[in-house]
From TrEMBL:
GO biological process: intracellular signal transduction; positive regulation of Rho protein signal transduction
Residues that span the membrane, as ranges: none
Domain PH stretches: 568-684
Assigned keywords, A-Z: Guanine-nucleotide releasing factor, Phosphoprotein
GO molecular function: guanyl-nucleotide exchange factor activity
Species name: Myripristis murdjan
Name of protein: MCF.2 cell line derived transforming sequence like
A Gene Ontology cellular-component term: cytoplasm
Length: 746
């Protein structure tokens, strides 16, 4: 801004004294001039002038600000500065006009008049600047909105274009020729499933959206219009390619059907099986004559016309097939004429003596029995299983040792072949060298195949180690599944499924055996090998149970001892558990009366473990639960009460003369009965062991007065002071501790 006078800007009273000396004030007073001076007004005027000077430096050069404004939305702050400057100017104008408002006869000095004119002019310029800025900001906001629309359009364009490229690539991969009607029909169905109209509709909708932006005078018309044209062009290309392939496939199917009709015409001249009787010969003759009447409909007449009509789909194989059909048509007519003469002779009525004979009893072919079908399925799937194992070991495991593939193996996979494949080589060798050959020996007597399973039941337990390693294998696979090594191996093997599907085959196979044995057992009732089949089925189910139990057992955490020292795992399952402790004559419950603990129990030969089940978040085997160890009871020191508190789903496990009682509730009475029976077996075996030790031990020396001996089996609780309510009616208890046997005194 250009000021007609120079207005010094001061920051304090000291600077005012520097600029205006007392002598100047005195001179003005001598000359009769009024030099009124107000410090507040002067400082306010100086501050306002500072703001105006700052705005003058900015100059509101809107064209120069445009590139900056497009990148910085904080330009809105300029509007606030304008409002502040306008308010300051208004206050300054009020201060200048204040003497006139107080005294209408007041006469302003020359400086005051100049200041008044300057402030009014500046306020007018600020109003004009504000108006110009508002206009610019409106244009800028519109441009920003258009810029955002453009960004959205470009993002959607990239997404749709990528989908169209994938769709076009898939379409190009489909063949427009076929080798058979079934193949042509399959390709047509695949084309229909990959048509993906949603993608085409989205692309056309996006092109229409671009046209709408152009109609609304978008500044990026040169960028939007080519993209709209490109989308429409690609959609048209895909649609035309799809139509072309469908038309060619339909033509191929038409040609195949024409050739098949000719093939049917050739096959129709071979009804020999039906001509063994007079009635059959007459029926065959009538059918043959009807077919000959429609012969022209089944005959291809012009080879060149066929080749011209189906030129687009004629592969070398199809062309050879068409030529062969034309070559055979000449001899077929003669064959039919000869067959017509033969049928007429057979159909002629002849009188022959007939000797009545008794019908033979129907003999059922053993090869067509259901048992043989199951046996064939067992052998075929076994051979396929062995081939799949070999394919995995040679196509993946062996390639991990191939130096040419070393650069494709990630660091997380190095030296982890045993983790990834487990004992699959051992499983393959067993099935290839032993089990498959022994199964093939029972091809003609499937009802006896149970013996084979029973003889190899110990060998089949190698699956337990494989299943126990499966969680580690699957975890490693998830870490490396996308690496180039596996993709290259899968490409070489031409597998549609990944390695993880083949690593699951052993688990599926050991499960499949019990299904096949059940089928064989169903069709072998009353046969010699029925008992062996039943025993084999029970053994396989036992292996599956052991595998399942071991998978749960390895998920236990927090147990400081060695689980293998606890003996075999007999049973495991989830229960609701209440605990009671007897202190003196009082019973104390650990938790609220009606709030049980949820515990997973593991029954071993030597101990009973109480664990808390914890669900894991993850996929596959990582989603399997884990078990936190909470408590254990030695089976040599426990007793059991079959019915607890009148509930047929509850039973009691107690120790130390019922000082510690665990009330266990099963999900069903059947589960409860199974557990009670199994615990009884363990306690009974321990009692027998105690008696054997007592029988074989030499007579001990008389124990000191303080020593005790306990080895009992009774029908009630060992504690008579506080019996369980159910113990008096329907309970039985057992308690035996080998450690309680008297020891000889040295």
């Amino acid at each position: 801004f250009a000021f007609p006078i120079q207005v010094p800007a001061t920051e304090s009273l000291h600077f005012n004294h520097v600029l205006i000396t007392p002598f100047q004030i005195h001179c003005c007073a001598v000359q009769g001039q009024n030099y009124d001076y107000c410090v507040t007004v002067q400082i306010l005027m100086d501050l306002t002038v500072d703001s105006f000077l700052l705005l003058s430096l900015v100059s509101f050069d809107l064209p120069l600000l445009q590139p900056y404004l497009l990148k910085n939305i904080i330009v809105c702050c300029f509007q606030e500065d304008l409002q502040v400057a306008l308010s300051q100017g208004g206050r300054l104008l009020g201060c200048i006009n204040e003497p006139l408002q107080e005294d209408p006869d007041y006469s302003m000095s020359h400086d005051e008049l100049e200041n008044l004119a300057t402030v009014q002019r500046l306020l007018g310029q600020l109003d004009e600047t504000e108006t110009a800025f508002d206009d610019f900001w409106e244009r800028h906001r519109t441009k920003l909105e258009q810029c955002l629309q453009l960004r959205h359009f470009e993002q959607h364009f990239r997404e749709v274009r990528a989908q169209l490229d994938v769709m076009l690539e898939r379409l190009c991969g489909f063949s427009e020729v076929s080798i058979s009607p079934a193949h042509a029909d399959h390709v047509l169905r695949e084309l229909s499933s990959h048509e993906e109209k949603d993608v085409l509709d989205r692309a056309l909708s996006l092109a229409s959206e671009g046209d709408s932006l152009i109609e609304n005078s978008h500044y990026a018309e040169d960028c939007i219009r080519p993209k709209c044209s490109e989308l429409r062009g690609v959609c048209e290309e895909i649609s035309s390619t799809l139509r072309s392939k469908k038309n060619l496939l339909l033509k191929a199917m038409e040609l195949h059907h024409a050739l098949e009709k000719e093939g049917i015409y050739l096959l129709a001249c071979q009804p020999v099986d039906r001509c063994q009787s007079q009635d059959g010969a007459e029926a065959a003759l009538q059918e043959l004559e009807r077919y000959l009447d429609t012969g022209p409909l089944h005959t291809l007449t012009d080879l060149s016309a066929i080749c011209c009509q189906y030129e687009a789909v004629l592969t070398p194989q199809l062309r050879d097939q068409v030529e062969k059909v034309f070559q055979k048509q000449g001899s077929v007519q003669e064959m039919f004429e000869k067959r017509r003469v033969s049928l007429k002779k057979l159909a002629a009525k002849q009188t022959r003596p007939v000797q009545p004979v008794a019908p033979r009893p129907e003999i059922k072919s053993p090869l067509s029995s259901p048992g043989n079908h199951v046996m064939n399925e067992l052998l075929e799937t076994e051979r396929a299983y062995v081939e799949e194992l070999l394919c995995v070991l040679e196509g993946y495991a062996a390639e991990m040792d191939n130096p040419a593939m070393a650069h494709l193996i990630p660091s997380t996979l190095l030296a982890k072949k045993d983790v990834l494949f487990g004992n699959m080589p051992e499983i393959y060798q067993f099935h290839k060298r032993t089990f498959l050959k022994e199964l093939e020996a029972y091809t003609d007597c499937p009802e006896l195949v149970g013996r084979c399973f029973l003889e190899r039941m110990n060998d089949l337990q190698i699956y337990e180690a494989y299943c126990q390693n499966k969680p580690r294998s699957e975890s490693l696979w998830r870490q490396c599944s996308d690496c180039a090594f596996f993709q290259e191996c899968q490409k070489k093997l031409e597998h549609k499924l990944g390695l993880d599907s083949y690593l699951l085959k052993p688990v599926q196979r050991i499960t499949k055996y019990q299904l096949l044995l059940k089928e064989l057992l169903k069709y072998s009732r009353g046969c010699d090998g029925c008992d062996d089949l039943q025993a084999a089925l029970s053994s396989i189910l036992g292996i599956l149970k052991a595998v399942n139990d071991s998978m749960h057992l390895i998920a236990i955490t927090g147990y400081e001892g060695n689980l293998s020292e606890l003996g075999r795992l007999l049973m495991q399952g989830s229960f609701s558990v209440w605990t009671e402790h007897k202190k003196g004559h009082a019973k104390v419950k650990d938790l609220a009366r009606f709030k049980p603990m949820q515990r997973h129990l593991f029954l071993h030969e030597k101990a009973l473990l109480f664990c808390k089940r914890r669900e894991e978040n993850g996929e596959g085997y990582e989603k399997a639960p884990s078990y936190s160890f909470k408590h254990s009871l030695s089976m040599s020191a426990v007793g059991i009460t079959e019915n607890a508190k009148g509930d047929n789903k509850k039973f009691e496990i107690w120790c130390n003369s019922r000082e510690e009682v665990f009330i266990v509730q099963a999900a069903t009475p059947e589960i409860k009965s199974a557990w009670v029976n199994e615990i009884r077996k363990v306690l009974t075996e321990q009692l027998k062991a105690c008696r054997v030790l007592l029988f074989h031990c030499p007579p001990p020396s008389p124990p000191p007065p303080s020593s005790t001996f306990s080895c009992s089996s009774s029908s009630s609780s060992p504690s008579s002071s506080s019996p369980s309510p159910s113990s008096s009616s329907a309970s039985s208890s057992s308690s035996c501790s080998p450690s309680c046997l008297p020891q000889p005194i040295p």
